[in-house]
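Long-time lurker. I teach an intro course on protein structure, and each term I like to show students one example going from raw sequence to a predicted 3D structure in token notation. This year I'd like something fresh instead of my usual example. Would anyone be willing to generate the tokens for the chain below so I can use it in lecture? Attribution to the forum is fine with me.
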Amino acid sequence: MKIDEALKELDKEKRNFSQSYDLAFSLKNINLKNPENKFTKEIVLPHGHGKNILVGLISSNGDIKKSDLEAISDDKKAVKELIKKYDFFIAEMPLMPLVGKVLGRYLAPTGRMPKPMPPGTDPKLMIEAAKKSIRIRLKDSPTIHCIIGKESMSHEQIKENAIAVIEEVKKALPKGENQIKNIFLKKTMSRPVKIEV
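-- Reply from a regular --
Happy to contribute to a lecture. Here you go:
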């Protein structure tokens, strides 16, 4: 069914809390033993996802300064606590080697390495984009799951977010949409509804 019909169908699935909308892809004809076919990708949703996202700015006047990283460089527990605090990281380019040394071993395996901030960039713009972003991963199983919004958002916003994610997934797959077997839209506590695009 089309996204609009799926959203109407999911309207029947009421709960006494604000549910999220999730998109799930099942893929076909993709060899995940080949590392080139695996990916982690950040997608900026046109309307955000209704969640409060914390972005850690690693810079001379950001939330995390060079001295902060140096202070925790030998303290695994402090590094893990810092990482848990934020959903995304942005770092000034000159600080990237230090970031790699202190945070790299924890962030790289989960595809969460900070986005480098080129000199002269307004961090506010990068932070706003990160707050509207989601991270999708294709790793060991031929499926992709992600949140695309909350019930408090309009159907139109959810639809536009869904289309943005679908287009980005197509671009990320080696053979594009030919490798998408099914796409499902669901709420946190609802059954999945198969959609066609």
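Some talking points for your students: The beta strands are 20-27, 39-44, 55-58, 88-92, 115-117, 133-138, 143-150, 180-187, 193-195. The chain has a mean pLDDT of 93.
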